[in-house]
Amino acid sequence: MKKSFIIISIAILITGSVYAQSKSIYGNNPKTGRQLNTRGFNMYYEIYGTGKPLLIIHGNGGSIKDFSKQIPYFKKEYKVILADSRAQGRSTDTKDSLDYNMMADDLNALLNHLHLDSCFVIGWSDGGINGLLLAIRHPEKVKKLAVTGANLWPDSSAVDPKILNWLAGMVDSLKKVNQTPEIKNQYKLLEMMTREPNITLNQLHTVKCPTLVIGGDHDALLPRHTLIIAENIPQSYLWILPNSGHATPVNYSKQFNETINDFFKTPYRIIEGIDRLN
Description:
Elements (H helix, E strand, L loop, with lengths): L2 H13 L18 E5 L2 E8 L3 E6 L13 H4 L3 E6 L16 H14 L5 E6 L1 H12 L4 E7 L12 H15 L5 H15 L5 H5 L5 E6 L6 H9 L4 E6 L6 H4 L1 H13 L13
Parallel strand pairs: 3-4, 3-5, 5-6, 6-7, 7-8
Antiparallel strand pairs: 1-2, 2-4
Helix pairs in contact: 3-4, 5-6
């Protein structure tokens, strides 16, 4: 398998569409882009708008530009903070090791750097995993959390078996080509997904913030697993979109943005007992 094919396949299949490769000022904006040297690497981040802080987190192999359909909407009311996660986008990291806990702690360091004691959070795919871990490891930092296409563990009870097989094949292919720095980085990102995350249900029970758990009914992350996530967070809502795969922020951007915004603005409502009939 040629290197160029591997890189293109990763960009398309991990983000769920070719959308992430479209040209956009987002993710490469000299007016707002900044570098933060923290925790042994350089993190690139951008900030848009004013208002209550909102952190948006991209998926594996993605970058800030994946949210070109969210930034214009949310920056009207929020201070939107986006970062390229470690070893992705413009955030350079040459170390061999990578894990989700590390990336969640990176985001906490960014919030500390910005002197933010808490914020709203949106996470897509690996960004959803990082959002969950941020709420678990740094609960004071997350006011409300919306995650789409996240998983707790990397097996066929959580991930479509065909996706797991594709991932294993891609990791194996990366071992067989010339080990350039780019290939090594892509290997590091994909190999991580074969062994992580490893979030327990007991950890989910500790999430204090209201959480909106989102998935497509044909998501790469299985709907029954998305239900398990929602059922084990004390204050959660579940939203499964019909006729949707993994790329809900792209293909259903209007509904996605409006529903999350309403969730952020509306107090969490406990629905139990006779109220379930309403």
